[in-house]
């Protein structure tokens, strides 16, 4: 399936939001290994921290959010050579710790080493520039990067194109950031992602595109820089069901063609089943279960994973309809998080052991299969079960502000008020 | 809808609006108390002379005839004769237009040149001293009546600082009426190479232009700041950041550009404030523009002159707004396509 | 009337920022000044003749100025000292500047609040009907609004006053009328024409906002539901559409009070307001005496600036918290 070399090693990553309600631990001491060329899926509810994880990797965390701790090791021998001089600590073999390099270096990796596809294509394009122009910008980043040897590029990308250039470009076309070659390449890219009449389409504005077309254009834009890692954040959520399949096919084809690594963020297990090699289930800022597709779909241990898959018998209603997981999205507020299994208050099999925060246990199945649940080491007994109202039954209202950090990044209107997973396991939306 | 069609539609609307303005002005005059003839020849005049005057100005005709005549006159650019000076209103209006335009354009230039960078700095350095300074300035700017600001500027520069400025800088801002127009000054410069007139003009216009421009500077600063902050929060900015393009492009090519598009329309609507402000600024600085003449006409109850000036101002307002709409339509691709 | 979420936004905005508090304190002080003017004023604001023995105005407390006075054809320089009787000095005809500042607040606030209120009463129904019925009705009404917008508000106001003159009427002041305070004017002049005129030139902004709101709720399900239950258009307009448009109207009204205060002061400055007890009028009084008596026009100007800042600060607070997307015209000044 894949060879075993990692492209990305995330250690101990913590991303917090400092809001008026308090500190929100959106991502908490997260560990992640992604192999070169694989499609790794992160699945979870809204507010589980999956989007924040993705954005932490590509360095798109805006205030009041902040990566407070951790390391993100990225395998790039060339980059390692360049960085070694200035910050030797940030280099380990061919790996570079992205959190220890200068912001300029970090910024220079956007578009060329990492790129991202967003959930809502309509709001992810600038409405007042043509699609072609916006694609050409992304192409230009790659063109300029490859025109320069990495050493100079890494210094500061933005110094290459300054405010002075921008002012001059209003009178001198030669000073424009985007060149004619890039515009032509943008048209090729549109064609590559299956947009008919790409020449004409390139001159049109985002509002003249359909949602599916625009998502294709966004994929083209993300591919413009020939990235090593593509982060796809809910790439199909905002689209019609029929279009969803086309977009996934396209991503699949492009991945096979280019061999790039994809980090796929979704709340939809159907998408995971179709696309991913390995998957991590995220809950309350941590990965609670991870492994190969088979591990997670067939040999899962964590009741939350089971809930996501909709296979808990008690939760199935009389009409055979899938019932949502009861309870609320967990509060990620630091002062409200207790040092226990964060799922315990919603878990039908919560036991006294769950009052201690579980480490990651190895589980049956493949070598990669681990789970953050005591059920990996013991079985459920009624005797140890917590009383039904142990955590109180007060309900927080839907659309609770505790789920904010994920949402304040502005990308998840489709699951805005969803505190439960009613659509797990299929593209039934 | 193409831009052409869009403009034709706006022009037709504009014609309707101007017709409405003309009608309102006519109606106001019709309901206005007092005999206009009195204003021309005085209440003590011989009734025969008065009748003659009424005949001459068409005041004896039935009201609808007067209306038709009036509209006809307006359409052909004949605004009638001033009651007071018996001169042609059209001439009296047109001869004052350059001074008002000079003032309005200078104020707008000052406003845009100061406000946009200030707004950008304010939005980019939120909650830093620069932002607080800009916010305080803009709060003061929108809250200060410009006639008072003008008086205070005169007090400061033309009274208290006049002598020191003359001594140390070699110039000061004069208090008296403008002596030379921009056009004449430029002609002098081009034909004779003498720049003194132009410099005199600059010294004359500085304080009035600041007075008129302050409110707009403040307002555009506020709009730019809040607009950019809103714009920065939009998802496309994050998506653009993810592409890895230089930050300067994100800030100016994407965010500032999109911020300015709606601001342009707001400014079009605020033109009324600019013109109203010009009227009062001209009064304070004795600036020989339309506003100055309007106040004279009002004080003398010189109806034809007053109507002429107001209709002319409304015409300018409508035309500029159409121009603004056209600009908006070219900048924002969504307008003409929807 | 205001939803909970907005209320909590309002509270939060108030708690977190100094500015709304400052605005509230300023506005409260100015309102107190306006209401209790007879108590706070140190002199009758209309009484003239508080001048020194040479007929010079007194400067504000702690300042002095030199002027020349004629004596038998010769001029001598004299120093005019301030007096503690007149905190902010006196004007050219010897009226107490502080007392006029206090009384000026009345005119500003009365015209600001009444004028805006009247504009709401004209503009909101106009806009609601226009937006709710849509189609031809809307087209016709919006052309009327466009026509009104083509007049700069100050220019239109001047034209209207030019036609109708500027009448005012006295509102009896209970504090003096019942003999609680002596030696103060018995009534306050409300510049009636000006109040009506500022409403006539600003209502369009309310109409635009109300129209937008009416259009946005016209097709909402609950309105359709009400219609299907047989509610008349008027019932729907006033029970469902009007309450929805209140938030933006309140915000706009606050901002417009500032614009109206500026407009009133401009009209008074130009001598078209029909009252002489007004900040704008006092500023024009001082215009000819800038070289010596700078305070005559500076003090009332500060009054206007503080009043407008107060209203603007509150307007910003409401706008940030309630976040309606509205625009209004700035002051005529």
TrEMBL record, chain A:
<dbReference type="GO" id="GO:0016887">
    <property type="term" value="F:ATP hydrolysis activity"/>
</dbReference>
<keyword id="KW-0813">Transport</keyword>
<keyword id="KW-0547">Nucleotide-binding</keyword>
<dbReference type="InterPro" id="IPR013563">
    <property type="entry name" value="Oligopep_ABC_C"/>
</dbReference>
<dbReference type="GO" id="GO:0005524">
    <property type="term" value="F:ATP binding"/>
</dbReference>
<dbReference type="GO" id="GO:0015413">
    <property type="term" value="F:ABC-type nickel transporter activity"/>
</dbReference>
<keyword id="KW-0472">Membrane</keyword>
<keyword id="KW-0406">Ion transport</keyword>
<dbReference type="Pfam" id="PF08352">
    <property type="entry name" value="oligo_HPY"/>
</dbReference>
<dbReference type="GO" id="GO:0005886">
    <property type="term" value="C:plasma membrane"/>
</dbReference>
<feature type="domain" description="ABC transporter">
    <location>
        <begin position="8"/>
        <end position="309"/>
    </location>
</feature>
<comment type="subunit">
    <text>The complex is composed of two ATP-binding proteins (NikD and NikE), two transmembrane proteins (NikB and NikC) and a solute-binding protein (NikA).</text>
</comment>
<protein>
    <recommendedName>
        <fullName>Nickel import system ATP-binding protein NikD</fullName>
        <ecNumber>7.2.2.11</ecNumber>
    </recommendedName>
</protein>
<dbReference type="InterPro" id="IPR050388">
    <property type="entry name" value="ABC_Ni/Peptide_Import"/>
</dbReference>
<dbReference type="Pfam" id="PF00005">
    <property type="entry name" value="ABC_tran"/>
</dbReference>
From TrEMBL, chain B:
<keyword id="KW-0812">Transmembrane</keyword>
<keyword id="KW-0472">Membrane</keyword>
<protein>
    <submittedName>
        <fullName>Binding-protein-dependent transport system inner membrane protein</fullName>
    </submittedName>
</protein>
<feature type="transmembrane region" description="Helical">
    <location>
        <begin position="261"/>
        <end position="285"/>
    </location>
</feature>
<keyword id="KW-1003">Cell membrane</keyword>
<feature type="transmembrane region" description="Helical">
    <location>
        <begin position="305"/>
        <end position="324"/>
    </location>
</feature>
<feature type="transmembrane region" description="Helical">
    <location>
        <begin position="12"/>
        <end position="31"/>
    </location>
</feature>
<feature type="transmembrane region" description="Helical">
    <location>
        <begin position="103"/>
        <end position="124"/>
    </location>
</feature>
<dbReference type="InterPro" id="IPR000515">
    <property type="entry name" value="MetI-like"/>
</dbReference>
<comment type="similarity">
    <text>Belongs to the binding-protein-dependent transport system permease family.</text>
</comment>
<dbReference type="GO" id="GO:0055085">
    <property type="term" value="P:transmembrane transport"/>
</dbReference>
<keyword id="KW-0813">Transport</keyword>
<feature type="domain" description="ABC transmembrane type-1">
    <location>
        <begin position="97"/>
        <end position="328"/>
    </location>
</feature>
<feature type="transmembrane region" description="Helical">
    <location>
        <begin position="201"/>
        <end position="220"/>
    </location>
</feature>
<feature type="transmembrane region" description="Helical">
    <location>
        <begin position="136"/>
        <end position="161"/>
    </location>
</feature>
TrEMBL record, chain C:
<dbReference type="InterPro" id="IPR035906">
    <property type="entry name" value="MetI-like_sf"/>
</dbReference>
<dbReference type="InterPro" id="IPR050366">
    <property type="entry name" value="BP-dependent_transpt_permease"/>
</dbReference>
<dbReference type="GO" id="GO:0055085">
    <property type="term" value="P:transmembrane transport"/>
</dbReference>
<feature type="transmembrane region" description="Helical">
    <location>
        <begin position="21"/>
        <end position="41"/>
    </location>
</feature>
<feature type="domain" description="ABC transmembrane type-1">
    <location>
        <begin position="105"/>
        <end position="315"/>
    </location>
</feature>
<feature type="transmembrane region" description="Helical">
    <location>
        <begin position="147"/>
        <end position="169"/>
    </location>
</feature>
<keyword id="KW-1133">Transmembrane helix</keyword>
<keyword id="KW-0813">Transport</keyword>
<protein>
    <submittedName>
        <fullName>Binding-protein-dependent transporters inner membrane component</fullName>
    </submittedName>
</protein>
<dbReference type="InterPro" id="IPR000515">
    <property type="entry name" value="MetI-like"/>
</dbReference>
<feature type="transmembrane region" description="Helical">
    <location>
        <begin position="189"/>
        <end position="206"/>
    </location>
</feature>
<comment type="similarity">
    <text>Belongs to the binding-protein-dependent transport system permease family.</text>
</comment>
<feature type="transmembrane region" description="Helical">
    <location>
        <begin position="109"/>
        <end position="135"/>
    </location>
</feature>
<feature type="transmembrane region" description="Helical">
    <location>
        <begin position="249"/>
        <end position="272"/>
    </location>
</feature>
<keyword id="KW-0812">Transmembrane</keyword>
């Amino acid at each position: 399936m894949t060879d075993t070399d990692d492209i990305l090693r995330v250690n101990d990553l913590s991303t917090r939001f400092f809001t008026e309600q308090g500190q929100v631990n959106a991502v908490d001491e997260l560990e992640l290994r992604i192999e070169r060329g694989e499609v790794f899926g992160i699945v979870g509810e809204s507010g589980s921290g999956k989007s924040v994880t993705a954005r932490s990797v590509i360095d798109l965390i805006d205030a009041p959010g902040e990566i407070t701790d951790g390391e993100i090791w990225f395998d790039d021998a060339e980059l390692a050579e360049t960085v070694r001089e200035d910050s030797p600590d940030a280099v380990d073999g061919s790996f570079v710790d992205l959190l220890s390099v200068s912001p300029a270096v970090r910024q220079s990796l956007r578009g060329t080493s990492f790129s991202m596809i967003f959930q809502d294509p309509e709001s992810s394009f600038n409405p007042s520039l043509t699609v072609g122009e916006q694609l050409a910008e992304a192409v230009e980043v790659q063109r300029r990067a490859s025109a320069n040897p990495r050493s100079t590029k890494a210094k500061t990308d933005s110094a290459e194109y300054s405010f002075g250039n921008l002012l001059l470009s209003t009178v001198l076309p030669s000073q424009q950031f985007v060149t004619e070659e890039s515009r032509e390449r943008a048209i090729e890219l549109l064609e590559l992602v299956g947009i008919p009449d790409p020449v004409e389409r390139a001159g049109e504005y985002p509002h003249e595109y359909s949602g599916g077309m625009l998502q294709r254009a966004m994929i083209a834009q993300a591919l413009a820089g020939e990235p090593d890692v593509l982060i796809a954040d809910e790439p199909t959520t905002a689209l019609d069901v029929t279009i969803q399949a086309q977009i996934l096919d396209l991503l699949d084809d492009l991945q096979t063609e280019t061999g790039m690594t994809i980090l796929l963020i979704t709340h939809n297990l159907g998408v995971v089943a179709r696309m991913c090699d390995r998957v991590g289930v995220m809950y309350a800022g941590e990965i609670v279960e991870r492994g190969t597709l088979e591990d997670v779909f067939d040999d899962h241990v964590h009741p939350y994973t089971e809930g996501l898959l909709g296979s808990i018998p008690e939760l199935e209603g009389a009409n055979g309809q899938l019932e949502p997981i009861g309870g609320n999205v967990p509060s990620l507020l630091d002062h409200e998080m207790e040092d226990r299994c964060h799922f315990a208050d919603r878990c039908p099999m919560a036991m006294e052991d769950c009052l201690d925060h579980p480490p990651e246990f190895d589980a049956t199945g493949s070598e990669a299969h681990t789970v953050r649940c005591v059920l990996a080491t013991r079985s459920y007994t009624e005797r140890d079960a917590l009383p039904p109202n142990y955590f109180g039954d007060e309900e927080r209202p839907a659309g609770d502000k505790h789920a904010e950090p994920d949402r304040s990044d502005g990308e998840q209107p489709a699951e805005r008020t969803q505190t439960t997973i009613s659509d797990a396991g299929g593209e039934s939306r | 809808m193409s831009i052409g069609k869009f403009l034709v539609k706006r022009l037709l609307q504009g014609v309707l609006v101007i017709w409405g303005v003309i009608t309102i002005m006519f109606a106001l005059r019709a309901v206005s108390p007092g005999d206009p003839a009195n204003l021309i020849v005085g209440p003590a005049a011989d009734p025969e002379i008065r009748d003659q005057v009424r005949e001459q100005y068409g005041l004896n005709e039935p009201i609808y005839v007067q209306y038709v005549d009036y509209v006809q006159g307006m359409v052909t650019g004949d605004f009638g004769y001033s009651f007071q000076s018996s001169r042609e209103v059209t001439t009296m209006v047109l001869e004052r237009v350059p001074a008002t335009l000079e003032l309005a354009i200078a104020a707008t230039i000052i406003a845009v040149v100061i406000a946009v960078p200030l707004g950008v700095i304010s939005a980019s350095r939120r909650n830093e001293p620069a932002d607080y300074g800009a916010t305080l300035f803009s709060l003061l700017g929108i809250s200060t009546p410009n006639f008072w600001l003008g008086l205070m500027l005169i007090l400061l520069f033309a009274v208290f600082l006049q002598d020191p400025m003359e001594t140390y800088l070699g110039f000061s801002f004069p208090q008296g009426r403008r002596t030379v127009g921009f056009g004449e000054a430029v002609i002098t410069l081009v034909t004779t190479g003498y720049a003194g007139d132009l410099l005199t003009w600059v010294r004359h216009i500085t304080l009035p232009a600041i007075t008129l421009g302050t409110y707009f500077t403040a307002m555009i600063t506020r709009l730019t700041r809040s607009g950019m902050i809103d714009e920065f929060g939009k998802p496309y900015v994050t998506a653009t950041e993810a592409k890895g393009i230089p930050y300067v492009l994100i800030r100016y090519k994407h965010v500032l550009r999109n911020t300015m598009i709606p601001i342009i329309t707001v400014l079009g609507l605020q033109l009324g404030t600019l013109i109203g402000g010009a009227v009062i600024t001209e009064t304070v600085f004795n600036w020989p523009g339309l506003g100055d003449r309007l106040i004279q006409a009002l004080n003398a109850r010189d109806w034809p002159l007053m109507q002429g000036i107001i209709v002319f101002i409304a015409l300018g307002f409508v035309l500029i707004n159409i121009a603004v709409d056209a600009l908006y339509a070219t900048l924002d691709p969504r307008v003409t396509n929807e | 009337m205001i939803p909970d979420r907005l209320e909590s936004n309002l509270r939060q905005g108030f708690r977190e920022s100094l500015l709304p508090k400052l605005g509230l304190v300023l506005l409260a002080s100015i309102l107190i000044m306006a209401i209790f003017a007879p108590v706070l004023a140190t002199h009758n604001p209309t009484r003239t003749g508080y001048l020194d023995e040479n007929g010079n105005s007194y400067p504000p407390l702690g300042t002095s100025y030199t002027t020349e006075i004629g004596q038998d054809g010769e001029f001598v320089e004299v120093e005019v000292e301030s007096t503690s009787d007149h905190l902010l000095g006196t004007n050219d005809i010897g009226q107490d500047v502080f007392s006029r500042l206090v009384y000026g607040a009345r005119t500003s606030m009365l015209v600001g609040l009444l004028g805006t209120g009247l504009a709401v009463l004209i503009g909101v129904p106009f806009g609601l009907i226009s937006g709710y019925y849509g189609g031809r009705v809307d087209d016709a009404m919006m052309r009327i609004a466009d026509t009104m917008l083509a007049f700069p508000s100050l220019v239109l106001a001047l034209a209207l006053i030019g036609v109708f003159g500027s009448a005012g009427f006295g509102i009896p002041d209970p504090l003096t009328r019942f003999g609680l305070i002596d030696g103060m004017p018995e009534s306050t002049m409300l510049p009636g024409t000006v109040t009506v005129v500022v409403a006539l030139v600003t209502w369009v902004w309310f109409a635009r906002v109300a129209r937008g709101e009416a259009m946005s709720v016209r097709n909402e399900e609950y309105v359709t539901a009400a219609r299907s239950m047989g509610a008349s258009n008027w019932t729907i307009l006033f029970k469902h559409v009007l309450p929805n448009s209140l938030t933006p109207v309140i915000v706009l009204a606050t901002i417009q009070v500032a614009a109206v205060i500026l407009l009133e002061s401009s009209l008074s400055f130009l001598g078209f307001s029909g009252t002489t007890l007004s900040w704008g009028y006092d500023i024009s009084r001082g215009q000819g005496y800038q070289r010596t008596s700078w305070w005559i026009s500076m003090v009332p100007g500060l009054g206007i600036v503080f009043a407008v800042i107060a209203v603007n600060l509150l307007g910003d607070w409401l706008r940030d918290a309630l976040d309606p997307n509205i625009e209004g015209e700035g002051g005529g000044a």
